[in-house]
Request: fold
Amino acid sequence: MAIPIPPLTLSHFLLAIITIGLGFPGLSANPVEFAREIRPILSDTCFKCHGLDAAKRKGGLRLDQKEGWFTPREEGTLVVPGKPRKSILFTRITHSDPDDQMPPSDEVRQLTPLEITKIRDWIRQGANWQPHWSFTPLRRPDLPKNDNASRTLGPIDRYIGRRMAEAGLQPAEPADKATLLRRVTLDLTGLPPTLEELGNFLQDPSHHAYEQVVDRLLSSPRYGEHLAVDWLDLARYADTDGYQDDEPRTMWRWREWLINVLNDNIPFDQFTVEQLAGDLLPNAALEQKLATGFLRNNRVTGEGGSIAEEFRVEYIVDRVETVSSVWMGLTTGCARCHDHKYDPVSQHEFYSLFAFFNQTPEPGTYRGLAKPSLKVPTRPDQKRLREIEQQLSQSDGDQRQELEEDRKRLIGRTPDTMVMEDSQRRDTFILERGQYDQRGRKVAPGVPSSLPPLPRGVEINRLALAEWLVDPEHPLTARVTVNRLWQHHFGVGLVKSSEDFGVQGDFPSHPNLLDWLATELIRLNWDIKALQKLIVTSSTYRQASQPSPAARQIDPENRLISHAPRLRLSGEVIRDQALFVSGLLVERIGGPSVKPYQPANLWNEIAGPTTSAYAKGYQQDTGDALYRRSLYTFWRRAIPPPGLQIFDGPSREVCISRREQTNTPLQALALLNDTIFVEAARGLGTRMIRAGGENQKTRISHGFQIVTGRLPRSEELSVLLNSLKTHQRTYLDDTSLALELVNVGESEPDPALSAPELAAYTAIANTLLNLDEAITRP
Reply:
């Protein structure tokens, strides 16, 4: 049916009045960008019915592509540049007849007067159509000029400074040295600086002092442990299968591989290839094969009555969605049942991606472990095994037998880890409506046509896919990766929706900076540490976190980064910091997952003994295992570690690119009462007494500086001193109460300290660990 072009009606007049009344001029003084301002409006209101999905498309009209926008049709032209009233697009969105208006009147999402005005102004200004920004070829933009004659600004600061200047803002002053050291140490290691490190930095006047600190932190083995947490979320790593039974599994050797290679700083392109196709590399080493455990971290089921093929399909769908999200920032799962309604990914292309992962001989139902799997000793065990091999050639008798037994022991304690393997060829079909048993057309492995093609002359397998993802011409991978690194250091990415670079995602706050960082990562040969050093040594990163009055008014979300963001620490860092400042942290890298304190009977109360593996409930560890870093905590998908979940830890059932940030009363209650924090407070209190001097003021100041990185102000010290005296009176009056407090946890209190004195300082230390500064990255 022809789309009528309505005459001017009262609604047009009313729209003009509304527009003027709201303060929007008839012709915008600033150019309206299609990619930044118009496409998001169309995506929200139009693409559902006029997008890629041909089966759902209405009126034969497609708005997500340029074709057809400016070509005359029988009923008129969709957009006539410079003439809104002759453009069907504009006349339909301003139509007075509910039967002809678009979006239809029964749609919940309607255009606002501001959005209508933007569309009108865009047409008046010539209707310049632009492709979606993230699919455009990656090109290195020109650097803005250094407009600050008083200092030399790096590339990051120039891009940030230009946007600030356009908004009438000025950057904040540099952060003081103590604040900066705490910030960068937490960001790069997940632990606070020691007092010795703080003293050394404050006393070093050299120009290169900060850069030397950054180099030291990047080379610390704690770096890999901290950065691994972000990747564990992306990789949906857990120690259980998921679904109802949620059986335990053993994948910690893959986690240890991850920590090691992050510390080794292998290039991100190699990091990518090994995780997606390490088994397909020529003469692949055991560690490269182990890396493919990334793809086997998905949920699996072994429940009785499950249909094996149905769940095998689910596992592959999960891998497609995970790889698409992690490396391309695309929600390809929307194309499982039909063409994507917003992004250029068809159902055919979804199953072409599916075909890459459809060759592994994995059963559909199993518990804990399934082939293909691999035994890969830890690095220390590999070293010892090599030594044994050398010694065996020179040994005999009892010594040889001892070496053989040692070798057998090392191999015997090496767990099986699930990995990938392409040992069979399966045909792949489009699954109608996404159903495992509704096969449609046969498809071959391939990639979306909106992206660069696969190279010619290579075998089309997972290795080809992995190498395609890190090809310098790929428009998404480098952008997505640097955005996630920016998110790590600033709390929010340059693209806020770090999981979605598609049409429904957010537009970059600084598009040119994003592209410059992406091209810089490639120029640096995908060196992640080098890029992080570039970020944390920038003046932008080193700003103070106090916003100016103008910044509060003009940019309340700090998207222009006129000051450093203050960020609530993750649950992992909050717990690790408490253990670290208390002296309880066991700094051993790698090994099996551990089970620290958690509320008694929590597993049985929530899930019950779903299988025989959980008949005894949660079996808490003892000794050093209680005080390991949080990334080693046993992660049960059905019931994630409560001390981490309360601070927004995910379930890890699916890939997570960014955690939610919440503030709840339960968080404060956990910090005050959870066993690990009370025990850590006692450890910190012991340090205050032992190393803080002979009087109360110096002891409190010592503890305050350990926790926050600065000395307390006089009014803060006064409050804490009064509180200490109150606690001392309480615990002297009731020694049993003091004994109860200092004996919380499995570690022993210092027997040389009186219980009332230690209890009083424990209470003060507990207060310090609950300070806003203690749980915030400054």
